[in-house]
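Re: beginner question about structure tokens

> Can someone show what the tokenized structure looks like for a real chain? I only ever see the sequence side.

Sure, here's an example I had lying around. Input first:
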Amino acid sequence: LTCSIGIALYPADGQRMEDLIKNADSAMYHVKERGRADFRFYQRQMNIDLLARVKIDHAMRLALDAQEFRLHYQPLVDLQSNRVFGAEALLRWHDKDLGEISPAQFIPIAEETGLIIALGTWVMHTAIAQAAAWNQEGQQLRISINVAALHFQQANFVEILSTALEQAQLNPDCIELELTESI
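And the corresponding structure tokens:
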């Protein structure tokens, strides 16, 4: 057994019991975020970090609804022949208020909140449609798609993938799924 402990001290961290509990909980959340089985004293920055995460989560949900995410395609090159044989789909996001947000910043939040499932489904459909368009133009390219553990573990994952391939009329040999480090 292990435990994670968040500590808030009276009166510096709160005058009321509710504030102390909230701040201790925030400190405990930071312990769990950094590996668990430890303790941490509350610091004001913790609430600022939490608010930033909540703001990014909310902005991501709005961006997904407004289709503000985009995919960049990194070419995959055969070094012997110098021929492009495929591309890796990379998710990017530019928020009108927050600016360009690094995937290293928004992907962990999406995984934590479960939004990664909807994002992953969007990426899958978009990348497969792009691969189908390239292949219809005569460019035989394989598309590589990153899949988060939470998305992969969904009971309907295969169905979502099959539907995307069917809608785009793309041969499954033209895609490659890469399980992200979180798996």
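Each token stands for a local structural state, so reading them left to right follows the chain. The longest strand covers residues 83-95.
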